[in-house]
Amino acid sequence: MEFCDKCHSIMVPVKTKDGRGNYLVCRKCGRKMYKSVKNFKITEHTKSDKKVVVIDKDINSLPKTTKMCPKCENTEAFYWLVQTRSMDEPPTQFFKCTKCGYTWREYK
Ligand SMILES: [Zn+2]
Ligand SMILES: [Zn+2]
Question: Can 89 be counted among the known catalytic residues?
């Protein structure tokens, strides 16, 4: 059972339109949260000391949010969550600028 991090209501799982995965939607405020998407592969590799995130997925199927790109100051970005560490830790939120493609992450 998952709860909305905004209003703490119960979130219900919904299948994506293409049927490849599912996400959770808050019944009260409509907040969406991605849980698991099949065939969603994210690989990280280290380039010098900078971590580069590679997304092996059709980026256009990801939800968008209002987020300022630290590189070009565009205000719209794709986002998704990845459980990078152990399950009892919060997932990492990734953003990808819709304009320049810059990808960054935020720890919740
Ligand atoms: Zn909510
Ligand atoms: Zn950008």
Answer: yes
Domain ranges of the chain: 1-37, 40-107
44 is known as an active-site residue: no
CATH class of 40-107: mainly beta
User: Does the predicted model carry a pTM greater than 0.90?
Assistant: no
Per-residue three-class SS string for the chain: CCECCCCCCEEEEEECCCCCEEEEEECCCCCEEEEEECCCEEEEEEECCEEEEEEECCHHHCCEEECCCCCCCCCEEEEEEECCCCCCCCCEEEEEECCCCCEEEEEC
Q: What is the tens place of the pLDDT at every residue in 29-62?
A: 988 877 654 444 555 455 554 555 555 556 677 8
Task: Give 102 Cα–ligand 1 centroid separation in angstroms.
Answer: 29
